[in-house]
Amino acid sequence: MNYSYPIEETWTKQEIIDVVNFYSLVEQAYESGVKRDDLMLAYTRFKQIVPSKSEEKQLCGKFEKESGYSCYRTVKKAKEVSTGEKIKM
User: Which family does it belong to (predicted)?
Assistant: First the structure.
């Protein structure tokens, strides 16, 4: 991993940990697979921290540009599968 996660300086320590956890689960979905429920729980928390759709697009766009992993496509796939399933991108 030769990239950094996009975070905001105004976030609390716990918010940064929660957002980094979400990015990490997106990475795992691409690399080895991740439980759908874990990803959706992390995404729900991400949306509490980043409620603005435009800010979400901006942060996820930076993350995708740096890593090649798409938050949008990963969450979209997670919404399409049943609870309890594992998703692999």
Answer: Belongs to the UPF0223 family.
